[in-house]
Amino acid sequence: MKKALCLAVILSFAGTMSAFCGQPFDAAAWRGVQIHDLPALQKIESSLVGKVVGVRINYRGDRISHPKPNWYESSIWRYRLGEKDKFAFLRVVVAKKDLQSFKSIPTDFKSPTEIVLYGQVGRETEANFLFVRLLGRKVTLDPSGNATVDW
User: Fold this and answer.
1) Per-residue pLDDT of the chain (151 residues; tens, 9 = 90+)
2) 30 DSSP assignment
3) 33 vs 43, 60, 82, 99, 125, CA distance in Å?
4) Which CATH code fits 2-150?
5) All structural domains of the chain with their residue ranges
């Protein structure tokens, strides 16, 4: 019961943010978007809740759950061979319409490709975990510096 309630809170928060998906960000807002490595993002998480960030990853988790009709949950990962903590991960929420694009991200942890995903940081307060509601991976800038994030 508690898990269902926590998930409902997460998805309702993510649902309120769906207005940002596919909509452009003005130049001033986009200049404030920073790209983080997963371990760094986990350390400064409380100050980023509600903000749009970029996250560097190598691969995604192969498990995808479907808790609500329009939302899926999964994880994104970063593997760094030479570091003490080689693996870092973060939970993500993906809209149903973006699921196929999300599935195009490799699931092999040895994937050499660095991918930057953009999303809005959220925190589930009762279960105390950080998640990102993914917006996309491609950024299109117009001449004025306004950005549109899409898959």
Assistant:
1) 444 434 444 444 444 444 444 657 889 889 999 999 888 887 766 778 889 999 999 999 999 999 888 989 999 999 887 777 788 899 999 999 999 999 999 999 888 889 999 999 988 777 777 889 999 999 999 999 999 999 9
2) H
3) 17, 22, 28, 24, 24
4) 2.40.50.140
5) 2-150
